Amino acid sequence: MAALILLEACSEIAGKQTIFVTTLDSQKAFDVVSHEILMDRLYHYGLNLNLWNIIEELYSGVTSSVKWKGETSTSFDIHQGGVLSSHLYKAYINELLLDLQKRNLGTHIGNNYVGCPSCADDIVLLSLNREEMQEMLNIVDNYSKDHRFNIHPQKSNVIIKTGKKHKDPENSDAFKMGNNDLNCSDRTTHLGLTRSTKDETRINAEDRISLARRTLFSLLKTGVHGSNGLHPKSSYRIY
C-alpha cells in the first residue's frame, strides 16, 4: 500500500508541478530501538497488560551464539529477527507520522493526506514544496534524536520528479538532515522498487528480469529439470 500511494502521488503531478521524494534509511533500525520507549508507547496505546508483559519478556536479555564444528562462540545480544519486530517498529515511529499529518506537512491526493507513506523502517516523505520538505526533514531529525535512532545520510536520497512542462528546478541547494547533506539523485529505492525521475517502469521491469535471470543461472548446477533438482512447478515459475 505504501508503494502504491507513492506511485499515485507521483502520477498526480502535471504541467509545471514538481514533487520532492525523500527516502530515509534508518541506521540499524531494529538494533537500536529503545525498549523502554517502545514498551512505554505500547502501554499508552492501551495494549492488553498480559500481552505487554509477554512482549517485555520476549525482548529482555535475548542473546544468541554461533556453533561451528563443535565450537560455540560467546553469546551476544540480539534485537531483531522476531516476527513482531516490524509491527513493533511501526508503533515506535507512529507518532512521527501522526505529527507530520497533524502539521499538514506533505502532499495530498484530493483531500487525502499522503505526505509520508511508510512501512516500518522504510520511510518516505513527499512534498510539492522545497521549503516544506526541509521542514519535514527537520521534524524527522528531532524525532530520531529524541527516540535514539539515526537516519543514515549517505543511504538516504532525494529525487525531484517534474511534470512534462516543467524544467529542472533552478534552486538545487542540498537538503539537510541535521548537519548532514542528503544526496540528491535521479534514482532511489523504496520497498524494493526503484523510483526514478524518468523511465521508472522500464527500469523496474529490467531489474525484475535481471533478478529472475540471475536466480535461474544460480540454480542450473543444482538442476532445474526436476529429476534430482527443483520441483517442476518451481522451475516453471522461475522460468
UniProtKB/TrEMBL annotation:
Q: Which residues form the Reverse transcriptase domain?
A: 1-195
| Alphabetical list of InterPro entries matching this protein | DNA/RNA_pol_sf, RT_dom
Pfam families the record matches: RVT_1
Where on the tree of life does the source sit, at the highest rank?
Eukaryota
Protein name, entry field: Reverse transcriptase domain-containing protein
Name the source organism: Mytilus coruscus
